[in-house]
Specification:
The protein has 125 residues and is mainly β. Helices cover 0% and strands 37% of the residues. It has a 3-stranded antiparallel β-sheet with strand order 2-5-11, with no helix packed on it. A hairpin with a 5-residue loop joins strand 7 (46-49) and strand 8 (55-58). The two termini are 13 Å apart.
């Protein structure tokens, strides 16, 4: 759960927190206020399931006016995340990974965040 901070001056969009796959594990990218670049659009993350139940995940991305992937705008204010664990349907707490405040630059322009690159930056959970 996240506590949404008041909208700072200049912020034009709130982006909910989202799960990001990097280095073979999931990380929680904290929700944030941003100033959307002129002409840019945000496509939020999504999980869809194939007919056999296989999940397919696509990360949230920013697209420029030409529809090409671009670096996200900087956060103007961050949500305050709860520090409880993720609880599954049976009530078991699962260790989900670190909370991060930004996605590393090496993920821009890729179809998804993949292996390699620098270690994620952010605060531990």
């Amino acid at each position: 759960m996240e506590e949404v901070p008041p909208r700072p001056q200049g912020a034009t969009a709130w982006l909910d927190g989202e799960w990001v796959w990097m280095h073979g594990r999931w990380y929680w990218l904290i929700g944030r206020w941003v100033q959307a670049p002129p002409g840019a659009k945000y496509a939020p993350w999504v999980v869809v399931f194939a007919t056999d139940g296989t999940p397919y995940w696509a990360p949230g991305v920013w697209l420029d006016a030409r529809g090409e992937r671009m670096a996200p705008p900087p956060a103007l204010a961050l949500a305050k995340p709860s520090h409880g664990g993720v609880v599954d349907a049976e009530g078991n707490v699962d260790v989900a990974g670190r909370t991060i405040t930004a996605v590393p630059a090496w993920t821009y322009g890729r179809g998804e965040a993949g292996e390699g690159g620098s270690a994620p930056q952010g605060e531990g959970q």
